[in-house]
Design brief:
The chain has about 210 residues and is an alpha+beta fold. The protein is built from 4 helices and 10 strands. Strands 1, 2, 3, 4, 5, 6, 7, 8, 9 and 10 form a 10-stranded mixed sheet that branches.
Length: about 210
């Protein structure tokens, strides 16, 4: 049904989802902070390095979050000032995208501007929706002047209706990145969990959401 290149994107997405599911079952992590109402923890895993996990309960139903984070992904820079562009380069079936994401330049940014080429894949297990991402390759490669091409080793956002209150969502986000360039691990280990907290804050502001008690 799909050409082999397209199939490879689907396979990459499904592989990333399986990996994320196995990580989500592990609970060996240390709490780093609680910012924007989100609890952020980390764990070190072979082949991925540090994986950061942010969890928060949002007063928004799963369907609305799913629309914002997958269906309307190109509109993300309108509400998330840390991004200057998100472009869908290719759609493969209903559940897989290839995207080019560019971070916004920021004077106080310790990391500098980065861009990412990623496969994004949507999966569903029972009532939960899983939005996974991982670095990929596409031809022709989009070039972004002034950016360093970084890689998302693994990203997985889990949207699960809150038991007893489907108007709220249990939001979990796993994140592991290779930001490339000469950046000390101590800086990366500060920047990534902060970027998760900032993303959740901007998402809440955009949806005028609050964290559920």
């Amino acid at each position: 049904r799909f050409p082999s290149v397209d199939l490879s994107y689907i396979t990459q997405g499904e592989t990333a989802l399986k990996r994320a599911l196995s990580i989500l079952q592990q609970h060996t992590s240390s709490l780093l902070s609680q910012d924007s109402g989100a609890a952020v923890s980390s764990t070190a895993l072979p082949g991925l390095g540090k994986v950061f996990r942010a969890e928060v309960i949002l007063a928004v139903p799963v369907a609305q979050l799913h629309q914002e984070l997958f269906e309307r992904i190109e509109q993300m820079p309108q509400w998330n000032p840390t991004l200057s562009q998100v472009k869908v380069l290719q759609r493969v079936g209903a559940d897989t995208l290839v995207t080019h994401e560019v971070t916004a330049p920021s004077p106080g940014n310790l990391v500098g501007q980065r861009d990412f080429i990623s496969v994004r894949h949507r999966g569903k297990r029972e009532t939960a929706i899983y939005l996974v991402g991982t670095a990929t390759h596409i031809e022709p490669l989009p070039l972004q002047e002034g950016c360093i091409r970084a890689e998302s080793r693994l990203s997985c956002i889990v949207l699960q209706p809150l038991a007893g209150d489907p108007s709220c969502t249990h939001f979990t986000w796993l994140l592991s990145m290779d930001l490339k360039g000469w950046i000390p691990a101590s800086v990366i280990n500060r920047v990534l969990p902060q970027s998760q907290a900032d993303f959740i804050k901007h998402l809440c502001q955009h949806l005028s959401a609050t964290t559920c008690p």
